[in-house]
Amino acid sequence: MSSLQEAIACPVCQKTLTTAPQECNQCHNYFRNEVAKIPSCLIDLTPEIVKGEAAVNSPPLRTELFRLPIISFLYERILPPIWAMGLRNVGGIDIEFQQCLEFFGNNSGVVADISCGTGIIARQLALLQRCEQIIALDYSEAMLGQLQQQMQLNGIPPSQITIIRGDVGALPLAANSLNAVYSGAAMHCWPDAEQGMRNIYRVLRSGGKLFATTFLQPLPSIVFRFFTQDELRQLAIAAGFHPDYVQVETRGIYGTLKCVK
Ligand SMILES: C[S@@+](CC[C@H](N)C(=O)[O-])C[C@H]1O[C@@H](n2cnc3c(N)ncnc32)[C@H](O)[C@@H]1O
Fold first, then answer.
1. In terms of pLDDT, which residue wins out, 204 or 80?
2. Looking at the predicted structure, is the pLDDT value of residue 1 above 70?
3. Mean pLDDT, the chain, whole residue set
4. Are 176 and 204 in contact (CB under 8 A)?
5. Cα of 115 from ligand 1 centre, angstroms
């Protein structure tokens, strides 16, 4: 059983491929059949699809926005130059990638880009070829479709990035299974940041690292939920990270959270 198969878990029955029963009456064997498709296509492990039921609560606008094909199409075609002028880190996503690599160090066995969007960082990691496994997970099928197209353009084979449609609030990953998580410019889009952070803490191995970025107040929380520097720190501590291993850096309205489990 590969470390990848041990990392992916059903969001409903919570089992990995190793532990899932041949006949599962919780997820009706959907999980086992879906994981068998890796690496040929993206797999959908959102709880509502796995259960075959409509979601009890529809996701908020800050999540749903990214499912619009027009947003996913324009995302990477418009934003990177704006980020590079200083909206994210000065120097943009390339600087963020360098900072993330520096923080991860050699701790790069199984790495997940959670809320990967079009997978800018997952693709850069794949091109570096230093991770054992890369998982790219997002709730938006439209963003993941763009990731697949970009992988083809970049010559990255499907075996290098496992693409999962999933919800950070019901993360389809096993406890203590990941060496590192990157989550870029995403926490402000999650329906429940507290739950998302608890899930990330759960799936990291001891010594595993989280590098997350997000936008901050005084941006107004009308559609997105913007945090203060202190809220970001408290979110990580409440999720389980020890205060000594939680570091928050801010630059204007952009915050970077670095945590070690
Ligand atoms: C601003 S984009 C960031 C994309 C990418 N990480 C980047 O750095 O450019 C935020 C992403 O969060 C995703 N997202 C929102 N809610 C989510 C959820 N509940 N679970 C997983 N991903 C979610 C959106 O689909 C979107 O792709």
1. 204
2. no
3. 93
4. yes
5. 4
- Mean per-residue pLDDT for 223-228? 96
In ligand 1, the atom with minimum distance to the C-alpha of 72 is 27
CA of 230 to the centre of ligand 1 (A): 22
Q: What is the pTM of this model?
A: 0.96
Other CB atoms within 10 A of residue 244 CB: 7
Identify the CATH number of the domain in which residue 240 sits: 3.40.50.150
> What DSSP string runs through 143-208?
HHHHHHHHHHHHT--GGG-EEEE--GGG--B-TT-EEEEEE-S-GGG-S-HHHHHHHHHHHEEEEE
Whether 207 contacts 84, CB under 8 Å: no
For residue 44, the enclosing domain spans 3-260
**Type of residue numbered 7:** A
Number of domains making up the chain: 1
Length of the chain equals 261
Q: Give the CA count within 13 Å in the CB-facing half-sphere of 206.
A: 0
**CB count in 10 Å sphere of residue 90:** 13
Which two tokens mark 115?
A: 């809320």
- pLDDT tens-digit readout, 78-93: 999 888 888 887 778 9
CA-nearest residue, atom 19 of ligand 1 = 167
CA 165 vs CA 92, 143, 240: distances in Å? 26, 10, 25
Best residue among 66, 78, 134, 199 to mutate for probing ligand 1's pocket (most ligand atoms within 8 Å of CB) is 66
pLDDT digits (tens, 9 = 90+) for 137-194: 999 999 999 999 999 999 999 999 999 999 999 999 999 999 999 999 999 999 999 9
